Amino acid sequence: MRSSSLHGTSSIRELNSISHGRNFKSSFYDSSKHPFARAIPSLSFKSCHFCVRCAVSFRPCIDIHKGKVKQIVGSTLRDSKEDGSTLVTNFESDKSAAEFANLYKKDGLKGGHVIMLGADPLSQAAAIEALRAYPGGLQVGGGINLDNCLSYIDEGASHVIVTSYVFNNGQMDLERLKGLVNVIGKQRLVLDLSCRKKEDKYAIVTDRWQKFSDVYLDEEVLNFLARFADEFLVHGVDVEGKKLGIDKDLVALLGKHSPIPVTYAGGVTVMDDLETIKAAGKGRVDITVGSALDIFGGNLAYSDVVAWHENNRRGIN
Residue 169: what pLDDT? Predict the structure, then answer.
């Protein structure tokens, strides 16, 4: 994408014209549907690209399905199959979510993601147990909305992670985003911008990664959304949980254009993948590793990843 200026009186509507002919027929850009968009100060690349720390961290995860810690191929999750017949599970642990939280606390790993892969009471209870075990050290996502977001903060979450509530029915809902920020503040909100390739662009996907939104990840979108969030979380859905290697192009996009901390997940298999992400992301993209770790049944030693993380952190101290 060529550099574009958004100085002066440019409104969100004008993003359509500076996208050099690409298709952006989206509610995200239609300020006539969202009066709030017209009230947002004009964007400036110069002001948005503030300093992002250049040290890569390992962000651990706790994925919960029906109360159990599991590693699942996320693209196989479907609400319509309650019997789980289409679900591809890589691993199910006999340890509780709280036990994993205590492990991450012991190892000094902050900013990990507790993801509820379903809104069932067992998963909610397990997530809350994890948050209570490591107060302030974990973020939580899965079914977060305006009504329940503050309750998870009260239970100990440092941030809440939101996707489908904001990207509602395949479109950006700025009123919902504004409501979340008003309740918990920008500093406690993580936007999950997990995406899949569509026509050689990365479209944000929602509803358990089954539905394409009409919002595509690029420089303008990342700069705009950074005004409302403290961090981004981005799963490369096409490779997530499949141990197929990372989506290097996606990592490079995030490293080049995200003005706030961003974490990439998807496809990490060996230690070299961590270095590849570090290089492709210009030292600005943190990493989540799931199914590949030995604590989740994989071959990649969790202890090696923690040591790698600590070595990176020492590099900026």
Answer: 84
What is the identity of the amino acid at 248?
Answer: K
Q: Let me know if residue 2 belongs to a domain.
A: no
Structural domain boundaries, residue 266: 56-74+86-313
DSSP assigned state of 111: S
User: Which tokens sit at 281?
Assistant: 């992301």
Residue 208: pLDDT over 90: no
- Given this model, what pLDDT does residue 242 score? 58
> How many domains are contained in the chain?
1
172: part of which helix (H) or strand (E)?
strand 171-172
Q: Which carries the bigger pLDDT value, residue 23 or residue 73?
A: 73
User: What average pLDDT does range 187-215 have in this prediction?
Assistant: 90
More confident residue, 120 or 41: 120
Decide: 111 and 77 in contact? Cβ < 8 Å. Answer: no
Strand-by-strand arrangement of the 195-198 sheet = 195-198, 201-206, 211-216
Q: What are the distances in angstroms from CA 316 to CA 115, 255, 311? A: 29, 18, 9
CATH at residue 268: 3.20.20.70
Confidence of residue 244 (pLDDT cuts 50, 70, 90): low
Tokens of 14: 């004008």
Using the CB atoms, write b or e for 119-141: b if 16+ within 10 Å: eeeebbebbbbbbebbeebbbbb
d(CA 104, CA 63): 14
| Phi, psi (degrees; rounded to nearest 5) at 43 | -80, 150
The SS3 assignment for 312 reads helix
How far is residue 294's CA from residue 309's CA, in Å, rounded to a whole number?
Answer: 16
In angstroms, the Cα distances linking 23 to 16, 69, 98, 102, 134 are: 8, 40, 45, 46, 44
